[in-house]
Specification:
single chain, alpha/beta, seven-stranded parallel sheet, 11 strands, about 45% helix, about 10% strand, binds coproporphyrinogen III
């Protein structure tokens, strides 16, 4: 299967990028691009309908269904990007870690010993998670040029949180205690996960993903010093293996208000931020060469139509006129959100910035 070229050439010979990719590279855009974290999921009736018949894990393992769910939000909304339907724990399952989605990931034997870390095999994506690559190949030909496909993985530290703790948690106490009680073991686990995620994301790019995003959902659990020692160690290692793909790299740092200094010199194109950090401040710290992605509070989708526009405008205002802003929520959309609110948000951002 051939993959469509990313760049289109105009008659005058200029190359045009889809707005999402242009914004990732801090280039001028015809309008501010927008997509929504967790845009394929439970707030959509058509997802719930399919999900009532098929378990979540099967949705992720069946390329035709993963492709279908990826495309669902694109049929409803004028989104500027698609994101592969999968989970951050899918490649970890591919490495032989037994887990269940309940709906959050629950690991049968949490990883806490040297022997368990040593026993973790490397990830060979084509062998261990071929269905993910197959899904990407099915999705690409069905996407408009204007909506590039984002491939993703979990940040090594966020994966460590689930692997050590064994289940979703507010504070991930056992995972943080592990960093302090067994720091060298933690580093070895992070390095293994970082290499696995680099291989995984390279394979996604080869299959047709047009940008790559690492979700560091639990970054905010760490103080800057530990964030730098552990989380950034993993991210640097993963990202270093991805520059050769030549496609934009995005690092999402949830609850990262206190961590922006730490990521300012990270070799990525885009930093994704939650709603707690005003984008103007974030951009001052990151400088003009990094794009930002975010950061409307997912709760704002519950305000009145007029108020929602004002909240979206406030985000645009903070981001400012300098190129390099991708509009998004500050974290995943809530399952009880009205799809109508998403439609209004997407159209408003486009109209307001065109
Ligand atoms: O539209 C998209 O964004 C693509 C799909 C996607 C899922 N998970 C589907 C999913 C993505 C990008 C993820 C990433 C993911 N998974 C993250 C990082 C992003 C974030 O929210 O911080 C994390 C931390 C996970 C781990 C995870 N998987 C949790 C905590 C849960 C349960 C709670 C929840 O928010 O749904 C899951 C299960 C999961 N992953 C579901 C979906 C649609 C729900 C499963 C179901 O339908 O029952």
């Amino acid at each position: 299967m051939t993959v469509k070229p990313v760049e289109a050439t105009t008659r005058s010979g200029m190359t045009l990028l889809p707005p999402f990719l242009a914004a990732c590279l801090c280039r001028p855009v015809p309008h501010t691009p927008i997509w929504v974290m967790r845009q394929a999921g439970r707030y959509l009736p058509e997802y719930r309908e399919l999900r009532s018949k098929v378990a979540f894990e099967e949705l992720t393992r069946r390329p035709d269904l993963a492709a279908e769910v990826t495309l669902q939000p694109l049929r409803r909304f004028n989104l500027d990007a698609a994101i592969l339907f999968s989970d951050i724990m899918t490649p970890v399952q591919g490495m032989g870690v037994e887990l269940e989605f309940q709906p959050g990931p629950v690991v049968r034997n949490p990883i806490r010993t040297d022997a368990q870390i040593d026993a973790l095999p490397e990830l060979v994506p084509e062998r261990d998670v071929p269905f993910v690559l197959e899904a990407i190949k099915l999705i690409r030909p069905n996407l408009p040029w204007s909506a590039p496909l984002i491939g993703f993985a979990g940040g090594p530290f966020t994966l460590l949180c689930y692997l050590v703790c064994g289940r979703p948690s507010k504070e991930f106490g056992p995972a943080r205690a592990f960093l302090y009680s067994q720091p060298e073991a933690a580093e070895r686990l992070l390095d293994k996960l970082a290499d696995a995620m680099a291989a995984y994301l390279r394979a996604q790019a080869a299959a047709g993903a047009q940008a790559l995003m690492l979700f560091e959902s639990w970054a905010g659990l760490l103080a800057p010093k530990e964030f730098t020692r552990f989380a950034l160690r993993g991210v640097r290692r993963t990202m270093a293996g991805l520059r050769s793909t030549g496609i934009p790299l995005i690092y999402y740092v949830n609850q990262g208000s206190a961590l922006m200094d730490c990521v300012a010199d990270l070799d990525v194109d885009v930093i994704g931020v939650d709603w707690r950090s005003p984008l103007g401040e974030v951009r001052r710290v990151l400088g003009p060469s990094k794009a930002v992605q975010g950061n409307l509070d997912p709760a704002a989708l519950f305000s009145s139509p007029e108020e929602l526009k004002r909240h979206a405008d406030a985000v645009l205002e903070e981001a400012g006129p300098t190129p390099g802003h991708i509009f998004n929520l500050g974290h995943g959309i809530w399952p009880d959100t009205s799809p109508d609110a998403v439609a209004r948000l997407v159209d408003h951002v486009h109209e307001r910035t065109a």
